[in-house]
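In line with agreed milestones, work has continued on tokenised descriptions of protein folds. One protein thus recorded appears below exactly as we store it:

>
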Amino acid sequence: MAQSIHETNHNALTIREFQHKVQDINLFIRTIGESDADNVLIMAHGGPGLSHRYMLGLEQLAGPQLTVVNYDQRGTGQSVSPQKLDIDKFTPEIYAQDLEAVRQAVASEKKVHILGHSWGGMVAMQYALQYPEHIRSLQLINSVPPTVAGLQAGFQHFNARVQALQHKGIIPTKLSTDGLEKLQQILPVYVAPADPPLDLPALAATFDRTPEVGEKTWEALGAFDLREQVGKLQLPLQILFGEDDPFGRAWADETRDAFTEATIHFQVFSHCGHFGWLERPGAFLMRHKHSLIRTKWFSR
């Protein structure tokens, strides 16, 4: 059930924001584009524990042929619950159920394109496993890999990057114990060196963080290996990754190798870290839109 719909217009495209009741949670949903568009792209943000706001730049993909949908995952941003959510409410399966509820709210019975960034890649992969009949294509941007071993190796790669930048004096040696402040301190780890540099304070201002959600999600995730399951998926898959991503190129390679039955478009962007649409907006967004609109991706 949709509640409190707020509708505006931006560059001739309609923006709608509303709350959608899903069992134990009210999910905040934001769409840009027309409700009757043939093609809908639903984006799962990273974290876990962040809101969708840092991904608003990807709304530039919206147009007459494509409606773009952002939403806040459970417990984050404006998707709050009147009651305390237990750890069993933060499993990948539950996240995928929420994403399906978003699809039903914005696209009725249409097949949709699903995009997952970073942690959102796990949500997207799990959704593809549970609801393959509703997917036109799967888009993974700097996504976590399908195994816990690969995930942990990426974290080790990240920690090594942190230490290297601390040694260079780029980030503080002593980091804050406050989660959001710490994230702001280590933002240089996430991006590639650039001239002019990315406006990190502006990026930090888009982060809404709910640490309890992150803690519960990682605990609920446990040990996992999705390679056998995703290896059976026959769908169009686009993997985009930044060459300087702090978690390492292995995340992208492992993901590509796991989807043995998928039709894959794979690209690694040079001079690019974890936020490709912000770091290299021209190349990243144009290539992404080209792959979606002008190729076989929209013929499914």
Q: What stands out?
A: The beta strands are 2-10, 13-22, 25-32, 39-44, 66-71, 112-117, 135-141, 236-242, 263-269.
